[in-house]
Amino acid sequence: MTAPVLSHADVNDAYSRWAPIYDAVFAWVMRPGRVATAALVNQTGGRVLDVGVGTGLELPMFEPHVKVTGIDLCEPMLDIARRRIESHRLSNVEELLVMDAMDLKFPDASFDAVIGPYLLTVVPEPERTLDEMARVVKPGGEIILSNHIGAESGPVAVFESWLGKRSAALGWRPQFPWSTVTNWLARRPDIEFIERRPLDRVGLFTLIRLKRKASPQSEALLP
Amino acid sequence: MVDDEAQSPENAGRRGHEPSRIDRRLLEILVCPLTKNTLEYDSARQELVSLSARLAYPIRDGIPIMLPDEARVLEY
Question: Could you read off the pLDDT of B8-33 as tens digits, one per residue?
Answer without folding.
Answer: 444 443 333 344 566 666 777 788 77
